[in-house]
């Protein structure tokens, strides 16, 4: 499956946020979106998901325009920046998402003790791990991840990166995070959003040329 988005124009009041976006994601690949604070990364994920209606946008799947919000197609799962799970016991949430609790425990044994605990009793980072796992593992063709790494400890980041690499075999994954080294390591393609436009990055040194990273980075 190939997902493309272009012809995006997003304004908030009279402020232009996005104008000149092209992004392509496909099964088997992770696409990383980088950009400074407030450049429009979250807005772009919301536009793809269908939560935000910009002035213009064109979403295509396998070359066919998709006119209804993508979330209505059941093709897509979205991890927003904020915690979103219902206040239920963990085991029940896994049932809701049709995701195996046993497989989760194999990957994250420290969570076994939480099987019958309500998710809101976990720490913020623990809740985030559960959310990211569910979004990555539940049935979909496209996964959108908004800042999955930001609240995780290094070992947990490594586990999530491994799951992303595994799941991309079946899915097109689009991911944004300020932890740029994890994005660079995990992504097959990288787009930088700057001045409302997306720029495909062919060589990571371009991230310095476009002043996203300082000259001393990446050495
Ligand atoms: N509902 C809204 N009303 C008005 N302006 C908004 C709204 N949502 C976002 N913005 C503005 O749009 C711009 C892009 O916001 P967005 O959250 O998409 O950026 P971002 O790249 O994800 O930022 P960050 O990396 O800081 O999370 C920002 O300047 C923000 O202030």
TrEMBL record:
One of its GO terms (molecular function) is ATP binding. It holds the Pfam family ABC_tran. Keywords: ATP-binding, Nucleotide-binding, Transport. Residues 3-218 form the ABC transporter domain. Belongs to the ABC transporter superfamily. This is ABC transporter ATP-binding protein. It comes from Pontimicrobium aquaticum. The lineage of its organism: Bacteria, Pseudomonadati, Bacteroidota, Flavobacteriia, Flavobacteriales.
